[in-house]
Amino acid sequence: MSIDHEPLRGLLGRDPVVATSGVALFADELRAQAVPVSEVAWKPVGEHSREALATVMADQRRVAANAEALARMTAAEAMLVDVVLARDALGLERGTFLHAGPPITWERASGPLRGALIGAVLFEGLAQTPEEAEAQLAAGAFEWEPCHHRDAVGPMAGVVSPSMWMYELRDEVHGNTSWCSLNEGLGKVLRYGAYGQEVIDRLHWMTDVLGPLLQQSVRATGPFDIRAILAQMLQMGDEGHNRNRAGSLMLLRELLPGLITADGSSSDIAEAVRFSGANEHFFLNLGMPACKLATMAAHGIPGCSVVTTMARNGTDFGIRVSGTGEEWFTGPANTPEGLFLGDYGPEDANPDIGDSAITETGGIGGFAMAAAPAIVKFVGGDVPFALTATQTMYEITEGEHTAYQVPILGFRGTPTGIDVTKVVRTGVLPQINTGMAGRVAGTGQVGAGLVTPPMECFTAALDALAQHAG
Amino acid sequence: MTETVDLRRGAYHDSVSLMQVSRAVARTPGVDAAQVAMATELNVEVLTGMGFTVPEGAGPNDLVIALRATDDAALAAGLAAVEAALADLRRGSASAGELGSAPDPLTLGAAVRRAGAGLVVVSVPGSHAVTEAFDAIDACASVMLFSDNVSVADEIALKDAAAAADVLVMGPDCGTAVVNGVALGFANVVRRGSVGIVAASGTGAQQVMCLLDAAGVGISHCLGVGGRDLKHEVGGRSTRQALRALAADPATESVIVVSKPPDDGVLAEIEALGSDLGLRVHFAILGEGRPDLTSSTEQFLRSTGHPVPTWPAEGAAPDLGTAAEQGSARDRGAALRGLYCGGTLADEAMIVAGSSLGAIRSNIAHDEDLLLSGDLRAPGHLVIDFGDDGLTRGRAHPMIDPTLRMERIALEAADASCGVLLLDLVLGHGAHPDPAGELAAAIRAARSTAADAGRDLPVVVALVGTDADPQGRADAQRLLAEAGASVFLSNAAATAHAVSLLGSPA
Q1: pTM exceeds 0.95 for this model
Q2: Considering CB atoms only, which of B96, B132, B161 is closest to A21?
Q3: Of chain A residues 60-79, which have a CB less than 8 A from chain B?
């Protein structure tokens, strides 16, 4: 940086405005001299993280790397370019499945993840009964790995099998592609761990009818700019994770002309339109891969402390960080607190699950809660909480999104790019809005609520950043 | 005539806001036409009608910035106005009022950005201070790093990062700075003037600025650089930046660098830099065989054409001497006991006294044979720095919390070998609000303890401060003198006086 006119950025030429961290006496002395003072409520980080934090803060690459990460995240495009079968798009072979969150064994898998895997085995015709499916899964007859390992994302259990259709989204700016399955609606659905006959029947209908129609529509009238819909839906009361009403309608508006003119029976088309229109989370499975594209663009920058993945498998919460490669930093997933459907209560809820925290990683969802005050009716909390939550997230993020804005905060960009160092320093954890799956395999959704990651993901990531520090 | 059409995909703003942006930009001198709008069909028509060519593929989710201006400079000014107006839109009205307000800043960087601060004071425990300092530097603020226990490697990394960001790291272990008349940390209220101080020594700088003030000479700024800045490893990193800034500062005419003995090579470089900058740099360097701070200040005053005053002193000259000093028949110990809060002042006392007394043991002795440890008790001459890192871990600096020194004063009073108590008391911002009252009581008690044992115990105080300090130097001097101490503004003079009062070894 060059020195232009006044050295030290004009320090000696103007009345000081001071910020202090530490002993209150020094702030008091400045106030006594009528100097404007901003005093930070500093608290020490855990002894374990002290040295790692200083090492990472001293990494000369960090500031530029984090700025680059934010620039890439906000510049990433997300065009819906196709609808394709998982076996074709992801090279997923028969007997192979993808799932949400970090890697996990059958022994440690949660109820909803086991339920979804059982359902997927049934759906693929690899077993005739749930018992048979479970036995095969437990015996190691099949293989599974995280969606994130194939640049895909899946809500809740996030189980993807070869015969499922996937939205294909493209970021031409950074040359990335990501995928996500089609949304099945709410209630008893595979992603919440349900595998009853109605669930399997619906999956077959989606494979046989819905997928091909959506493919025709996208190919005929697409590509569609998903990022633009996200920007607009935040100004219409959605936050893109647990409230997708405006986004779903806007998406349907884009898809309708192509659906109506698709090659299919009018009753199939009508059912496809009805199904999509009735599902207020229809858009979630597009918002998620859009955010995945943004975080993919920011991944792999040496020295960068920005989080590029937050994902849960119902047992572990895992994060990955731009500057630490493909390593997962995991801790036990917390159980969300919130509102329950019907007779369900806290004891029925499974710990946090799903790749959908990619929305918060990309700067929306819980981070954009102030844009969606109505969401408190779904996930709990109150409107002031929603406003405070978003504003608190600015304290742990690299900057503000340029396209995603919050009207009530004066169109301030959403807090974007979670910085591991800021999370550890402040002790403030990312705010996630989420659905709640039943603890027991086969139950389905029991509610929705608010949750945070375990701090140990971030302290472990910080340790790794310190090891990689240059 | 020149024009530009810029397309920004996915940058959404509502039409009313963009109309305001367009209007603001159109007012830029030299801008003939400006349209900032989402590329809706309607807006594309309007733009085409204005003679702009909108790029293929522009859609309603894309922001178009179209400008036409008389020349390139006006076009650039117009584009800058667009950026400013868009930034204003993003900033918005900010406050959400009662409905869920924003939290106070949780990190120093956030506080700096929100308050627009140009300077931070970091006084968290040393092991955490590095993180805070980097955060402030990243936010483009200069740092006064009060914290100690920061490694040399961290100090160098911080100073390099600061230089790259064109900000200054004052410290670590920097207790004193004055920026544009604002006292940071421990600093005295002195008159404004044209002397810039670069301080690698906090209490040393306070001594110099108070002497200058007594001579009627004011300072422009006092920039701390940390005690190790002029050592070989750190290489004068902050001193260089400070000198450059002072050279460019219209209020500063000359500079005094206050430091313990620097590395010879670094000193030569700093001297060369001073002459390159055309800056008159005077060095007040405290070390064996060098002038004390008072002599250095006097040299500076003479060389800049200022008269050297008689430095304030009370109970000092023989004719003003207290009863105890004027040699009663009672016994007097032969050992000097210097109990200091200011590290540089303690150092100076050892140098001044050492020239006539020889070996002096201390917790900050450079010679390992003379190093005090444990309970800091030993026979013979002692000077203890209660502000040293080793005595401040987990405890406030003695200028804030004088408990340890008070306890030691009482111990010395009961020690028959203690011939003279030599103390410092530094006034100013950051220091104890009534230090003289407490110290006077301790002095009175000590002298009475000694008298009860049939001994004389002269007490000499170096009182560093000004009458404008919150505690008021004149009041403090009176309190101490009434307690029986002789009081000097000059620490060197106080030390010389203390030495002269010692009894003969038994």
Answers
A1: no
A2: B132
A3: 60, 63, 77
Handedness of CA B458, B464, B466, B472 (dihedral sign): negative
- Look at residue A2 and tell me whether its pLDDT is greater than 50: no
What is the rounded distance in angstroms from the CA atom of residue A183 to the CA atom of residue A199? 12
Q: In the structure, what pLDDT confidence band is assigned to residue A268 with cuts at 50, 70 and 90?
A: very high
Same domain, yes or no: B199 and B131? yes
| Residue B495 domain-assigned (yes or no) | yes
**Cβ–Cβ below 8 Å for B118 and A14:** yes
What was the pLDDT predicted at B391? 83
pLDDT digit string, tens, across residues B435-468: 999 999 999 999 999 999 999 999 999 999 999 9
pLDDT at B332: 82
**How many domains is chain B built from?**
3
Q: What is the pLDDT of residues A193-215, one digit of tens each?
A: 999 999 999 999 999 999 999 99
Please give the span between the terminal C-alpha atoms of chain B, in angstroms, as a whole number. Answer: 98
A414's enclosing H/E stretch is strand A412-418
- Flag if A32 and B17 touch (Cβ within 8 Å): no
Model confidence pLDDT, tens digit, residues B13-62: 766 677 778 878 888 889 988 888 888 887 888 888 889 998 888 887 78
3-state secondary structure of B382: strand
The full set of domain ranges for chain A reads 1-42, 65-72+299-468, 74-287
Q: Are residues B292 and B372 in the same domain?
A: no
Name the B residues in 162-181 with CB < 8 Å from any A CB. 164-168, 179-180
Q: Are residues B293 and B347 in the same domain?
A: no
- Provide DSSP, B274-295: HHHTT-EEEEEE--TTS--HHH
Which two three-digit tokens encode residue A126?
Answer: 């690899």
Write phi, then psi, for B103 (nearest 5 degrees): -70, 160
pLDDT beneath 50, residues of chain B: 93-97, 317-326, 329, 506
| DSSP one-letter code for B424 | E
| A444 in Cβ contact with A408 (< 8 Å) | no
Output the CA–CA distances (angstroms, integers) from residue A247 to A83, A228, A285, B345, in the order listed. 18, 10, 11, 70
- Out of 3.40.50.620, 3.40.190.10, 3.30.230.70, 3.90.1710.10, which CATH number does the structure's domain A74-287 have? 3.90.1710.10
B59, B103, B111: residue with CB nearest A38: B111
Q: Which residues pair with B426 in a beta bridge?
A: B464
Please list the alpha-helical segments (H only) found in B399-472. Answer: 403-413, 435-452
* Residue B119, strand partner residues: A18, B142
* In a domain? residue B102: no
Rounded Cα distance between B358 and A32, Å, is 45
Interatomic CA distance for residues B336 and B422, integer angstroms: 7
Chain B nearest CA to A399, separation (Å): 11
SS3 category, A246 = helix
Tokens of A447: 């509610």
Say what the pLDDT of residue B325 is: 47
Measured between beta carbons, which residues in chain B are less than 8 angstroms from residue A25?
400, 430
Level-2 CATH architecture, domain A65-72+299-468: Alpha-Beta Complex (3.90)
- Candidate from B130, B168, B241 with C-beta closest to A54: B130
- Give yes or no: residues B346 and B483 share one domain: yes
Q: How far apart are alpha carbons A228 and A286 in whole angstroms?
A: 12
How much is the pLDDT for B504? 62
Residue B191 in tokens: 């008159």
**Model confidence over A363-380: pLDDT tens digits?**
999 999 999 999 888 888
User: How large is the ipTM?
Assistant: 0.90
CB atoms within 10 A of CB B440: 23
Q: How close B27 gets to chain A, by Cα (Å)?
A: 24
CB–CB of B91 and A54 under 8 A?
A: no
C-alpha B75 chain-centroid distance: 45
Residues of the domain holding B195? 109-303
